[in-house]
Amino acid sequence: MRAFTAAAVTTAALTSLALAGGAQAAAPSGHPASGLPLRTLAAAHHLRVGTAVDMDALAGDATYTADTARQFSTVTPENVMKWDTLEPQQGTFDYSQADKLVKFAERHGQKVRGHVLVWHNQLPSWVTSGDWTADQLRAVLHKHITDTVTHFKGSIWQWDVVNEAFNEDGTLRDSIWLDKLGPGYIADAFRWAHEADPHAKLFYNDYNIEWTGPKSNAVYDLVKRLRAQGVPIDGVGFQGHLDIQYNPPADMAANMSRFDKLGLDTAVTEADVRMTLPADDTKLAQQADAYRLMLDSCLATRHCISFTVWGFTDKYSWVPGVFTGEGAANLLDESFQPKPAFRAVQDALAARP
Ligand code: 9MR
Questions:
Q1: Ligand 1, atom nearest to 116 Cα
Q2: Mean pLDDT taken over the chain
Q3: Model pTM?
Q4: Which residues are catalytic?
Q5: What's the gap in Å between 165 CA and the centre of ligand 1?
Q6: pLDDT-based confidence at residue 352 (cuts at 50, 70, 90)
Q7: What is the pLDDT of residues 84-128, one digit of tens each?
Q8: Distance from the CA of 242 to the center of ligand 1, in angstroms?
Q9: CA of 318 to the centre of ligand 1 (A)
Q10: Which domains, ranges and CATH numbers included, belong to the chain?
């Protein structure tokens, strides 16, 4: 159980307040989206609820902007804190888009999850095609982490320091970092990030670790070892990219709890639940159950500090571009109308802590 108690939000309060604000029309009472914003409901659990943010949508879509502000208490840049955006040429940084999101978050009382410092993806070509010695590449990584974390110092709540370092079988992923620097790059990255901002919470983040298995066990062994060695790691992020055609991660709460017992924070960092299109009522109900399972697992874990969805509307989702024939992965449909999954999340958060 979580450590906190707080006044339960009553059903009466839920139904008396319509979803309103910004360009979004107020929902009629009894409409599935009526009720307190997710962020208000989550606060009763001392939990922050978040979304990945698409900066083009934030700039150009008023409904998207209003919902981002109204529903969420933490935001994650979907792409604009990645290496190829931040440092497209060596030593030339472009923080402009990321700074916009940080300012947006400040204006709306939101915390920021920084994403991401060390990853094998979305690296600029000067990194991937450079003919580096190990010492040179270590210096490049050190500088990128130090410059980036220093720039955002004081503005980032949680940093995804290392992302997706494992294969499904629990071996370390073959990447430029592993190839050139060896497995020690992981500990180094956490140490360098901590030196640059000692107050940010530093996370290891990965997908397909929601359930126990070789990958999740390997992450568990890694973070246990890092803690034992005094490496400054604060948490583990469970991305939560699910697909209804596979079994839901029924043991997710138990799995998160073993990380909790190591003294780590946990978070659901990128939740979405895709399906083969077209969506129908059965699939949407399965999707709602999967979201609910992930949120309930977080709520049951004492130090699960945030539940973040990887986008909240089907209008802007990475899924159709990557999984042919699949989509409809988010809480709201393409017209920003709530799906059963939104109601499931709302209900879970409205339940007495
Ligand atoms: O949602 C992101 C998409 O817009 C990018 O094209 C893609 C590039 O790899 O990355 C997506 O976000 C990923 C996140 O950064 C890390 N975990 C998996 C996410 C979905 O692929």
A1: 15
A2: 91
A3: 0.92
A4: 164, 270
A5: 15
A6: confident
A7: 999 999 989 999 999 999 999 999 999 999 999 999 999 999 999
A8: 14
A9: 7
A10: 36-350 (3.20.20.80)
Q: Which residues contact 129 (CB under 8 A, 6 or more apart)?
A: none
188 in contact with ligand 1, CB cutoff 6 A? no
Phi, psi dihedral angles at 327 (to 5 degrees):
170, -145
Location of structure tokens 């009526």: 34
E strand residue ranges, 231-341: 235-238, 241-243, 265-276, 304-309, 326-327
> Which residues have a Cβ under 8 Å from the Cβ of 192 and sit 6 or more positions away?
141, 142, 145, 146, 149
With a 6 A CB cut-off, is 90 part of the ligand 1 pocket?
Answer: no
78 CA distance to ligand 1 centroid (A)?
7
CB 210 within 8 A of CB 267: no
SS3 203: strand
Q: Is the CB of 79 under 6 A from ligand 1?
A: yes
Is the minimum distance from the CB of 318 to ligand 1 under 6 angstroms?
yes
Report the alpha-carbon angle 207-254-239, nearest 5: 15
| 190: its two tokens | 């956490």
CB of 239 shorter than 6 A to ligand 1: yes
What ligand 1 atom has the least distance to the C-alpha of 322? 21
322 CA distance to ligand 1 centroid (A)? Answer: 10
Determine whether the shortest distance from the Cβ of 34 to ligand 1 is under 6 A: no
Contact (CB, 8 A) for 241 and 310 = yes
pLDDT value for 253: 98
328: Cα within 13 Å, side-chain hemisphere: 21
172-193, pLDDT tens digit by residue? Answer: 999 999 999 999 999 999 999 9
Question: Pairing between strand 235-238 and 201-206?
Answer: parallel
The bridge status of strand 156-163 relative to strand 74-77 is unpaired
Nearest by Cα to 102 from 110, 94, 90: 110
Structure tokens at 229: 């060695």
Residue 307's nearest CA partner among 15, 26, 48, 3 is: 48
CA–CA distance, 318 with 329 (Å, rounded to integer): 9
Which residue lies with its CA nearest to atom 4 of ligand 1? 318
Closest CA to 202 of 176, 235, 224: 235
